[in-house]
Structure formats: C-alpha cells, structure tokens
Amino acid sequence: MSEYAIEMRGITKTFPGVVANDNVTLQVRPCEIHALLGENGAGKSTLMSILFGSYSADNGQIFLDGKEVSIKNPSVATSLGIGMVHQHFKLVQNYTVTENIVLGMEPTKRKLLDLKSARAKVARLSEQYGLSVDPDALVEDITVGQQQRVEILKTLFRNANTIIFDEPTAVLTPQEVDELIEILRKLRSEGKTILLITHKLREIKEVADRCTVLRRGRYIGTVDVADVTEQELAEMMVGRAVKFEIDKPEQEAGAVVLSLRNLEVADSAGIVKVRDLSLDVHEGEIVGIAGVDGNGQSELLEAITGLLPLSKGSIILDGKEIDRCTIRERIEAGLGYVPEDRQKFGLVADFTIAENSALKNYYHPVYKKKFGLLDFNAMEREANSLIEQFDIRSAEGAATMAGSLSGGNQQKVIVAREISLSPKVLVVAQPTRGLDVGAIEYIRRRIIDERDKGGAILLVSFELDEIMNLCDRIATISKGQIVAVNRQDEVDEYQIGLMMAGSQAEVAL
Amino acid sequence: MKAERKRLSESDGATSVLVVLMGFLVGTILVALVGKNPLNMYKALFQALSGYNIDNGRMNVRYIAETLNYSVPFILCGLSMGFANRVGLFNIGGEGQYIMGLTLAQTVALLGPQIPVLHWVLAILAAIIIGALWGGVVGILKAKYEVSEVVSTIMLNYVALYLSRIICLQLPGATTYKTANFPKTALIENTFFQAITHNSLLNNGIFMMIVAVIIYWFIMEKTSLGYGMRATGFNKDAARASGIPVVRSISISMAISGAFAGLAGGIVALGSFKYGRVLAGMDNYGFDGIAVALVGNCTALGTTLAGLLFGLLKNAQALMQGKQIPKEITFIIQGLIVIFIALRSALKLYQEYLDKRQLQKEVGVK
Ligand SMILES: Nc1ncnc2c1ncn2[C@@H]1O[C@H](COP(=O)(O)OP(=O)(O)OP(=O)(O)O)[C@@H](O)[C@H]1O
Ligand SMILES: [Mg+2]
What we know:
Helices cover 32% and strands 26% of the residues of chain A. Chain A is α/β, with parallel strands linked by helices. Chain A is globular, with a radius of gyration of 24 Å.
C-alpha cells in the first residue's frame, strides 16, 4: 500500500492565454480531509476537474494507491471510485431523491429497473452516514442543503472512496455548514478520503487535516492544518499580508435616499414573502439585512430592482417614486444591483468582459457611433480600465468570455460595472459568496469606498460576520418582516442570531 | 459545463463542414447501394456548381445562375430562422411569412400602379412588411402573453396558406392554379443576367438577398439593437435584470425575422414566375430555412454558404435525373446533414460510453 491514496504529479494544464495549473503536485493520504486553498482563478477547480476526468491534463501523472491511471472522462473516474459534488447541483427537480441517485446507472434486475432495491440502498447509506435524506422526497421539495446531500449520496451509491467537494459551503446557510462539517467527519471516520475546496479558512481549521495551497496555478505547499493559523494560511495563498477586518471610518449618514414603505411582495408562485416592510437607507451608510436564507430577502431585492412586481407599498429613490418604473428607468434613476445569482442575473456568460461591462448602458452616447453603430472600441477601453482598477484576472483581457472566468473574477466584473455607473443606491446580495479572502477584502473595500463617497448601500448577506463587518445599521428580517433595526455597535452576533430565529422577545436591548 | 459549451461552439464551423461531408458520404453509399454510379451524382453536382458538363465537355453558365437563383430563398429563409434563433426563439413560421410575402407581392403586381421600378419596389416592400407583421404578431404574443412561438407559428403557417388561396383566387384572371400574367413593370428580371446566362431565371432578387445578408450581419454584430438581442438570446434573465427591454427585443426580432422570409416570398413571386400562383401546398422554403440556419450556425456568412449548398442540391436534381440518379437523393443528403447536426451531442455521449467499456475491460471491473 502506498502512502498516498491520490497522488497527482507535475500536472500542467493550459487554457488559451492562461496556465491554469503549472506543474502542480497534490498528495492526499487515505482517510484524510485534504483542503485545497487558493485565490479565485488559482486553478483549484481545474485540478479537480482533471482528477475527475472532465478535463485532460497537458502533462503530468495521476496515481491511485500508487498505481498510475489515466482518467479520460468522468465515467472512468466513477469506476475508479472517485466522486464529485459540484458547486452547481445536477439534479432533476421533479424526480424523487432515489430516482435522481440512480439516474444514469439504473440498476437492472433481469433488465427491469429495480428502484426498490435502489431505494433500500439509498435509505441504508443515508442512515450509515447520518445524512437524513428521505429517499422518496421530490428534489424540488427539499432544501439546498439536502440537495447537496443527495449529491453526496449519489457518489456513495456509486461506491466512491474519494469524494471531491468544490466549494460545498458557498451555497449553505451557517446551520447547514455546521451539519455538513459533521457529515464530512462521519465520511472520514467511515474510511472515505475527502478533497475539499473552500475559501473559508475557519472551515479548513475546523475540519481539514492537511491543506494544499495553490497560487496563480502554481503549487505553493502542503501544510498540517494544526500547525498554522488562519492568518498564515491567508498569507500563503495570497502572497502578502491580508486584513480580515476592514477599517471603516465613522461617518455621519446624510439624507434618506432609498425609502421602502409598507412593501408587500409575492414570489412568482404567488406566495406572499414580504409583509408590510418599511426601511430607510441614508446617503453614506450601509444598511445590512440579516436573516436566514428564505425569509423574503431575495423577493425584497427583486421587488426593489423591478424583477418582481410589488403587491403593496411604495419605493422612493431620491425623492422619486420608482415602483411603477421599468427596470431600465430604475437603473437610470440611480439604482445599482449586484445580484445574488451572478450567473443567472449578473452576467451573460457567452459575452466578453467588454460586452458585459456595457450591459446596462450600451445605449448611452459613449458607446454610440453614427447609424446606430455600437462603439466596441469604447467598450473595450471601458473594460480595460475596469480590469485594471478591479484587478480582474482573465486569459485574454477584455475579450475573455465571462463564462470562462473564475467565480471571483466574475463577481469583480459585476461589482466593477455597477460601481462604475456611480449609482445613488447600490443593492448588494451576498457579494462575497464563493470568493477568496483576497477578493473578499477587495470587494468589501470597494463597497465601503462607495459608502464613504456618499453612496447608500443596502446589503443582504447570510453571513453574520460580513454584516457585522460592513454595516452601519442592521435590519434583521424574519418571515418577511423586519424584526428590529439596530446600529452596528448596539448588538452582537449572538443577539442578531436570536432575532433571526424570530425570538425578538428574548433579546433585551 | 459552460466551458464545454464554449469549446463546442468554437468548433461549430468545422463541425458543419464535417457534417456536410458525412452527409455526402452516406448519400454516395446509398446511391451505390441502389446500383447506380455515384460518380454520376458528382458529375451532376459539379455541373450545377460550375456549369461544366464533364460528359460532353460543354460549358453552360446558365447552371451557375440557376444555382444562385435557387439559393436566394434558401438563404433568406435561413436568415429568418437564424435571426429569431439568435434571440433565443424558434421560428417555425418562416413558411407562413414566406407565403404571405409571396401573396402580397402577387397582389400588388397585379393591382398596383404600372409605373416602372416603383411597381416592383412597392410589391417587394409589401412582401417585406406583411412578413414582418406576420412574424411580429408571434413575437408580441410570445413576449406579452407567453404564447409559445412554436405553436403560434405552426398555426399561422396554415392560416397563411388558406388566406393566400382566398386572396389569389380573387385576383384578375385567376383559375384554380394561376392568375393572369404580371405586367412587365412588376417583374424583377435582369435582362443583362438573362443575356449572359442563356435566359436563366437569375434576377435582381440576388442583389436584395446580398443586401439582406449584410443587414443581418450589421444589425446582429454592430448595432445596439443587435447587442440587446444577442444578450437576450444568451441569457434572458441577465438581459432583463440589466434593463434590456426583453419584450421589445423579442417582438422586433420576430418582425425582422418575418421580414426576411417575406422578402424571400416576394422575390420568388416576381422573379421566378411571370404569373401569380394559387398555392395548392407549401413551397417549403421556410422549413428548409430551418435546416439552412442550423447548418450555418445562424451567422450571416454560415447561413449564406449553407443556402448556396441547398441551392446547389436543388439545381442538381434535374441533372441527376438525366443521369439516372433518383433526385430524391438530394433530399436524403439534406436530411442526413440535419440529422448529423442534431446527433453531435449524441456522438459525444457514445464516445464516453465506449471509453467506459474500454476501461472496465482494462481494470477488470464487473
Ligand atoms: N474552460 C476554460 N477555458 C479557459 N480558461 C479557463 C477555463 N476554465 C478555467 N479557466 C481559467 O483557468 C484559471 C483557473 O480557473 P479555476 O476555475 O480552476 O480557478 P479556481 O481556483 O477554481 O477559482 P475559484 O475559486 O474562483 O473557483 C482561471 O484563470 C480561469 O479563468
Ligand atoms: Mg472553482
């Protein structure tokens, strides 16, 4: 038996214009939780895609238990006992859990689909690993956290010994993160080897045994997690000292710029998600909305930006009632939006960075030439300046397809575009989800800069430390209603946590 | 996943060429299987392409001109399909828009003012406008009321056919299958072309087609209208959230799409016939346009090339029959090309399956 369950040696992979992996080494011991850390675009997903057979490396070797293998595609990886839980789940919404799990490998009993024994196996696995997933539930009825467990079950069902998790916690609520960490520990104790990509240093400290760090495609080193601090890990990955807490000068808030009055919003299925909600945001302040995912935050923001209609109430932006305005009119009135789902609402993946940077104002005179012609050169110039200001890393500069950017850089493109439009009010949802600490620092810095320049910012985040770090005032939301609005220095995370759970009465302020 | 898609689309041009070659290869085999000499098929195709008859060494440019003339409606209907497709719509209504264009062009040709130039210009404009309306209605239904464009276009195709019959039967000199002859001022014939191509049917429509191709390219790639449309086609949600008027994009794109098909109808009516036709069935250019656009990847250049190929095949039909090759082989080749395009992704899945089998043998997994 070799020392390493998985060994990747000298892996090199180039994409047009970038070396995503440059002679990378990865050595994973059996039954350990091995974290993979690196900035956005460092090449973590690429390395894992090579291990899982989605990409083929230009160079390098892969050994499983000391035997060299060639993993040409994901089915090969599966038959070698490697499973992957992708960040974006690949589940069929109106199938049951069991059906989803057997999908693509229906077990046969004299050629007939044997769902019954599959169901039994799913139930047994779920029990064994403490996943508590109902094999008969429809996927559309279960939470994101449970859907992720279905993905885990999928790999277990296919007898995976090694499971790769690509940023599993990015989509989870804090409670679900804790549960996932328990599950990871359970998997390890049952003899599975785990590869974990995450940007959260806390999670690495909490659950991983060892950690390999990549920087700009290169292998930096592998450390025993117990021997290093979070600060040291961050420096290893970024190559410089990183600030976790951003200085925020005290500042008097100005006049009210965004006023939400008695809003009621129903989601697309007609269920009322926001009830009688009122809130003001002033010039030069950041107001955070703290709450557990699903308490009406998305619907509230979509109503403000015009993606969802308002059933009741009014929205006043800088003295002007905008709740009957089209989305474009709202943007023109000075509303900026960094959406929670950046792939769906924020970017056109098949457009270049240049084209994406002009998505909201391509019809403005700056981009106009004669005869309704678009000035693509002007777009490119604008994009280049954003790329420089925001340190957006891409293969081919302004001509890079947005879809080929790493998540962090996609987010930078969106934030750069929104800020460059100098909005009066910037609505931001989960701005640092899935981002590395360097990028998080950067994006938070830019948001605070906007505030310092007098912008009004409404921020939704499920992460309390982000809310505590950035906001001047915190509005806690529960079941579509604001439970309380507090100044940041009046409350602590614990009190907010209690209010989020809806137990307003227990918090004596 | 995204990256995968990108890589596929990058090789789209190459794939189309490959797919066309495969279509011809299988077509060749089929000809051989029914006991004919495939060489004759290629001789016919060569003659339709170059005008040169290999068997007797004679040259006749008329064949080239006819190939070009046949391509015109294919290309225009391809543009029609392609334009809607780039905005994320599936316009099966090209046929109906084509029929309406043809009908209005015939009507204006027979009833309009017989003033040189103005007459045919009016007839062509009428064709373009009715095509745009016929498509635009679908766009508005889709954008405002979420009526599937697939369903509404299919229905409108039939409405167009029967409406066309009703209108054309009222036109001067109408019998069950044709109307009176068009006045000379309504025709778009080109006497110069006729002189140099031994009286082929090639007419001024080819210039209109070229202008249409340029307009297509220009709107899509160069204007802010096209930019908004492409954004809508790639990602409707992001387009909407960015304030792009999605409803307007969809309606306008269907109207422009219809205008291309309407123009095709006008050109066929005034260029290839001297009288109005009372249609008994569909001409199918609108449907073939779907295939043309798919083969041409919905780009201006690709669609033009694919349309030329379809025109070539159509013109080669008569020549093939003269050489004892069943003309249906051209339909089979067209059909194969479309099927292969659709099979692209299936082929990839099959490759994965083979890899897996191979590995299971190597590792000895049960
Ligand atoms: N399919 C692709 N085509 C072109 N470039 C790509 C492709 N996939 C990744 N890249 C580039 O390779 C580099 C590494 O990307 P990768 O997705 O592996 O980073 P990552 O470490 O997973 O980042 P993140 O933390 O943001 O997910 C980036 O510069 C990215 O733009
Ligand atoms: Mg990644």
